[in-house]
Amino acid sequence: QKEVEQNSGPLSVPEGAIASLNCTYSDRGSQSFFWYRQYSGKSPELIMFIYSNGDKEDGRFTAQLNKASQYVSLLIRDSQPSDSATYLCAVKNSGYSTLTFGKGTMLLVSP
Amino acid sequence: KAGVTQTPRYLIKTRGQQVTLSCSPISGHRSVSWYQQTPGQGLQFLFEYFSETQRNKGNFPGRFSGRQFSNSRSEMNVSTLELGDSALYLCASSLNLDRPYQYEQYFGPGTRLTVT
Question: What's the pLDDT score for residue B102?
Answer without folding.
Answer: 64
